[in-house]
Specification:
Elements (H helix, E strand, L loop, with lengths): L3 H4 L2 E8 L6 H13 L4 E6 L14 H12 L5 E3 L2 H4 L6 H12 L3 E8 H10 L2 H7 L1 E5 L16 E4 L8 H9 L10 H10 L9
Parallel strand pairs: 1-2, 1-4, 2-3, 4-5, 5-6
The chain binds adenosine-5'-triphosphate (ATP) and magnesium ion (MG).
C-alpha cells in the first residue's frame, strides 16, 4: 500500500473548512483518514472570510485560524496553513491545492479530505476535472449526509466511513448563543478561546 517511504514522496492530507469553530468531528475525520491512507501529515486550511455563509456572518479569519492552531497543536502530524486566510476573495479548492503545493514543494501527493456534504458541493460547483489533476479526494461519512457515488472517475475519489460524530460547527454556535455547554464537543482550549473572545454570543452571528 505505502509508497511514500520508499520513493521519498510525502503523503499530505489537506483538510479545508470554515472551522467556525473547529470541533471533534473535524479532528476525528482527519485522524481516521490519516491512519487509513498512511498520511505523513494533515494540514488544516481554514477558508478565507466569505461575505456570508448560509446567511450569517462568518467569524474573523484570524479567530478561526487561531482556533485551528490551538485544536491541532498537540498532534505532531497535524499542521495549519494560512494560504486561504491570506488570499483575498472567495476560497476555491483549486487555489487551495495550488497554494499548498507551492508551500510544500513538488515531492508531495495531496489527499484532499472532505465530509460527504462538502464533497458533493465541491464537485458540483467547481471544475472537477481540474481538481482531480491536483489531488486525490477522500469523502468521509458524516451523520445526516449519505455517501454516494455521483459517477466519480475511477481512482480519483475514495469514500470512507469514519466513526460517526454528530457534531457540527452550527450546533456548537447555537449552543454557545443559548448558554449551553460545548465541553467535549470541541477541544478544551476551544471552549476557553470562545469564552475569552466572546464568540457566538450574539444571535445574529449564529
Ligand atoms: P457548519 O455547521 O458551519 O457548516 P461544519 O461543522 O460543517 O460547519 P465545516 O468547517 O463546514 O464544519 O466543515 C469542514 C469539513 O469538515 C467539511 O468537509 C465537512 O464536511 C467536514 N465535517 C464537518 N463536521 C464533520 C463531522 N462531524 N464528521 C465528518 N466530517 C465533518
Ligand atoms: Mg458545513
Amino acid at each position: 500500500m505505502r509508497s511514500g517511504a520508499s520513493n521519498g514522496i510525502k503523503r499530505l492530507g489537506v483538510m479545508g473548512g470554515t472551522f467556525d469553530p473547529i470541533h471533534h468531528g473535524h479532528l476525528v475525520a482527519a485522524s481516521e483518514v490519516a491512519h487509513h491512507f498512511d498520511l505523513d501529515e494533515v494540514v488544516f486550511v481554514p477558508t478565507g472570510r466569505p461575505y456570508q455563509k448560509n446567511d450569517r456572518e462568518v467569524s474573523r479569519a484570524e479567530d478561526r485560524y487561531l482556533m485551528t492552531v490551538i485544536a491541532t497543536a498537540s498532534n505532531p502530524r497535524f499542521s495549519v496553513s494560512r494560504v486561504d486566510v491570506d488570499r483575498p476573495g472567495e476560497t476555491y479548492t483549486k487555489d487551495t491545492l495550488r497554494d499548498v503545493r507551492a508551500e510544500y514543494g513538488d515531492d508531495v501527493d495531496i489527499y484532499f479530505i472532505t465530509g460527504a456534504d462538502a464533497l458533493a458541493q465541491i464537485l458540483t460547483w467547481q471544475d472537477a476535472e481540474e481538481l482531480f489533476e491536483l489531488a486525490h479526494f477522500i469523502g468521509c461519512t458524516r451523520p445526516g449526509h449519505h455517501l454516494h457515488d455521483p459517477g466519480l472517475p475511477e481512482g480519483k475519489v475514495s469514500l470512507i466511513e469514519v466513526p460517526a460524530l454528530a457534531i457540527s460547527s452550527s450546533e456548537c454556535r447555537e449552543r454557545v448563543a443559548a448558554g449551553e455547554p460545548i465541553w467535549y464537543l470541541v477541544p478544551d482550549g476551544i471552549v476557553q478561546y470562545i469564552n475569552k473572545r466572546n464568540l457566538y454570543r450574539d444571535e445574529a452571528m449564529v
